[in-house]
Request: fold
Amino acid sequence: MSARVLAGPPVAAALLADAAARASRLPAPPNLVIVRVGDDPASASYVRGKSRKAGEVGLRSTVHALPETTSQAELLALIDTLNRDADVNGILVQLPLPAQIAEAAVLHAIDPRKDVDGFHPLNVGELWAGRPALTPCTPAGILYLLEHYGIPVAGARAVIVGRSHLVGRPLAALLLNADATVTVAHSRTPDLGGVSREADILIAAAGRPNLITPEMVKPGATVIDVGINRVLNAEGKGHLVGDVHPDVAMVAGALTPVPGGVGPMTVAQLLANTVRAAELQHA
Ligand code: GUN
Reply:
C-alpha cells in the first residue's frame, strides 16, 4: 500500500479563492510590501513567487530589494516608513538577513498589525495564549491542509521534529490550540524514532534530507514533510528533497510530497494573512 498523496496546489487554490473573495469586499486591494536584503538566489526566487501570486489573486505588492551591505539602521528606517504608511497593509522582511542586522530588532520593529509573518513577539505571545491573530504562514498553511483533507487534529498525537521559530514552535502552538497532544522533538531528542512512532500526525521540519525513515513512522500515520533541501543527484544536478525518505510512502497512511505539498500552502497563507491584516485595519 502506498500513502494517500496530500497535494498542496488544490488546497492552496481553495485558500487563495477565499482570500480573493474577501479582498474584493475591502475598500481597496490589500497591499503587501516585501523587503529582501542581499543577493541570495533562493530568497530572491521565493520573493518573486510571493509577489507574482499576490498579483494573480488581485492583491497589490511591492518588493524592496536592498543591497547586502544595508545597515540595520537603514532597514529599520524603511520599516518605520512602511509602518506609518496607511496604504501598506502587510510587511514581510524575508529571512535570513545578513550578519550585520539583528533579526530580533527587525521583527520587533514591524507594526504587529501589519506583521503578516506572525513573527512579532506580540503575535507570538497571543498565539501561545490561545488568542491567535496573525499566525506564521507555513504552520497555518499546514493546519488548513489537514482540515481540507479531513485529517482529525483534536485528540490526535502530533509529533513535530524541529523547533525553529518559523515552523516547529508556532506549529506546536497551533496544534495545541486545535486540541492535539503535541510533542516537539529535535536534534537532541534521544530515541527520535521511538518518539516519532507515537505520532498519528508526524511533521518533519528539521531541514535534514531523508531524516525520517520508514521504521520511524507508525503504520497509517499522516506525515507532513516541511523540508526543502537542495541536494545534488548522481549527475551533479540540484533538485529538491524533503526531510522524509521516499520509502515512508510504503508505511504512512497519507503524505505530503516535496515539491508540491506544504510549499504552495505557505505562499497562499501569506496572502490570506495579508487580507486578514487589511480586514483588521479597516474594521
Ligand atoms: N524565509 C524562509 N521562510 C520564511 C518566512 O516564512 N518568512 C520570512 N519572512 N522569511 C522566510
About this structure: The two ends are 50 Å apart (CA to CA). The mean pLDDT is 97. The first strand starts at residue 4 and ends at 5.
